[in-house]
């Protein structure tokens, strides 16, 4: 018989004693696409997370083998569909190195212009969605205002705003239209003041700092072991940028800095991208000043064939990191094999390392800081 004077035992608490498995996505606005995360939680604390991908798989790499080199450019648009120009550049650069085509100087400068405009556009979309995920709505409207101007410039150049198809093996399909350079110069002259507007809303905002400082820490050795590249790597203190390390197009003819921050958290990755937009503005201004006259397309055969038993890998610094194409030629007009090295795929795999021990609410911030696009991950 229980002594009524004995105090009742305290009920067991959830924390530390019971785990639960949750599905986060694939239909969730914070996953930015059809990403599914199987999350093990102990209360509000994440024990582990398992990314589950494949909901957007289209067999893109196999499609490359079914079409001639020229016809594959539109496939690249639909991988990272918010950075089509840099996808185009990585593919056509690989084809040019495989077939020995030399691009004219004017085309190289136009490609650099389009790539840096695409970097700014991609970062603006990242900032808009990352901020609104964490609870800051105003930056969404600010950033889309400037992104719209960039999309107008793309549309004026090639007729498209998102899936641009704006490059060809050997050069550019179109020259710049009358007045395009003036409108681009007007945009970049005004854009630094807009970046200050964004930072005025966020950089010293105490809520923003609470949600990002110390969240999603990615030590440099972990980043390197997982093959992380781009702003995520530079936010972990490693100064690696293919535009500087292995220059391509006109990057060795312009002056710019590679921003690096050392706290390895979500806040520093935000600072890296903000500074990258400023550096892209510098690059665009120099390209406009130095833009040479001349042809925009190299002399090339009507039917482009790669040499037999040839292979090449070519990578560039996209907005999200290194995007590269490995292509094998067999003497026919089609690639024998094409393999894509997408930055989002490698950046996503380090997500579990960054969220273990964090709160469920912080998972949204960490997904945002990776800046992934599922079309590039699943392909």
Structural domain tally: 1
Residue-averaged pLDDT, rounded?
91
Shape: globular
SS strand fraction:
5-15%
Distance between the amino and carboxyl termini: 68 Å
Order of helices and strands: EEEHHHHHHHHHHHEEEHHHH
Share of helical residues:
40-55%
* Relevant CATH superfamily: Cytochrome-c3 Hydrogenase, chain B
Strand order of the largest sheet: 1-2-3
Q: Care to count the β-strands?
A: 6
Spell out the blueprint of helices and strands:
Layout (H helix, E strand, L loop, with lengths): L19 E5 L11 E7 L2 E8 L7 H7 L6 H5 L6 H16 L5 H30 L3 H21 L21 H23 L3 H7 L7 H7 L4 H4 L7 H4 L20 H25 L17 E11 L2 E10 L6 E5 L1 H6 L2 H5 L4 H11 L3 H5 L1
Overview of the molecule:
The chain starts with 19 loop residues before the first strand and ends with a helix. Helix 5 (138-158) runs antiparallel to helix 6 (180-202) and helix 6 (180-202) packs antiparallel against helix 11 (266-290). It has one domain (51-378): Cytochrome-c3 Hydrogenase, chain B (Orthogonal Bundle), CATH 1.10.645. A three-stranded antiparallel sheet has the order 1-2-3. A three-stranded antiparallel sheet has the order 4-5-6. The protein has helices at residues 60-66, 73-77, 84-99, 105-134, 138-158, 180-202, 206-212, 220-226, 231-234, 242-245, 266-290, 343-348, 351-355, 360-370, 374-378, and strands spanning 20-24, 36-42, 45-52, 308-318, 321-330, 337-341. By secondary structure, the chain is of the alpha+beta class.
């Amino acid at each position: 018989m229980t002594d009524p004077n004995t105090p009742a035992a305290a009920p067991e608490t959830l924390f530390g004693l019971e785990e639960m498995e949750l599905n986060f996505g694939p239909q969730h606005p914070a996953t930015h696409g059809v990403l599914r995360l199987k999350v093990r939680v102990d209360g509000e604390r994440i024990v582990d997370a398992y990314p589950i991908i494949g909901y957007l798989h289209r067999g893109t790499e196999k499609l490359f083998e079914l079409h001639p080199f020229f016809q594959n450019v539109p496939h690249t648009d639909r991988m990272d569909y918010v950075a089509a120009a840099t996808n185009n550049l990585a593919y056509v650069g690989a084809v040019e190195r495989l077939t020995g085509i030399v691009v004219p100087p004017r085309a190289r400068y136009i490609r650099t212009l389009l790539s840096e405009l695409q970097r700014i556009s991609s970062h603006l979309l990242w900032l808009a969605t990352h901020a609104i995920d964490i609870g800051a709505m105003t930056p969404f409207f600010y950033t889309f205002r400037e992104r719209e101007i960039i999309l107008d410039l793309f549309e004026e150049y090639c007729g498209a705003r998102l899936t641009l198809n704006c490059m060809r093996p050997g050069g550019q399909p179109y020259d710049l239209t009358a007045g395009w350079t003036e409108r681009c110069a007007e945009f970049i002259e005004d854009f630094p003041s807009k970046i200050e507007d964004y930072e005025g809303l966020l950089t010293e905002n105490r809520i923003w700092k609470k949600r990002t400082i110390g969240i999603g820490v990615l030590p440099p050795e972990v980043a390197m072991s997982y093959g992380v590249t781009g702003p995520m790597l530079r936010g972990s203190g490693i100064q690696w940028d293919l535009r500087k390390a292995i220059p391509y197009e006109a990057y060795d003819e312009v002056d710019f800095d590679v921003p690096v921050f050392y706290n390895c958290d979500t806040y520093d990755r935000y600072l890296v991208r903000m500074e990258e937009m400023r550096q892209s503005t510098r690059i665009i201004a120099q390209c406009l000043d130095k833009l040479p006259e001349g042809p925009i397309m190299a002399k090339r055969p009507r039917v482009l064939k790669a040499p037999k038993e040839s292979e090449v890998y070519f990578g560039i610094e996209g907005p999200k990191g290194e995007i590269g194409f490995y292509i094998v030629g067999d003497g026919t007009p089609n690639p024998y094999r094409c393999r894509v090295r997408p930055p989002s795929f490698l950046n996503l795999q380090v997500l579990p390392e960054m969220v273990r021990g964090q709160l469920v609410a912080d998972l949204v911030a960490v997904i945002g800081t990776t800046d992934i696009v599922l079309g590039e991950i699943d392909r």
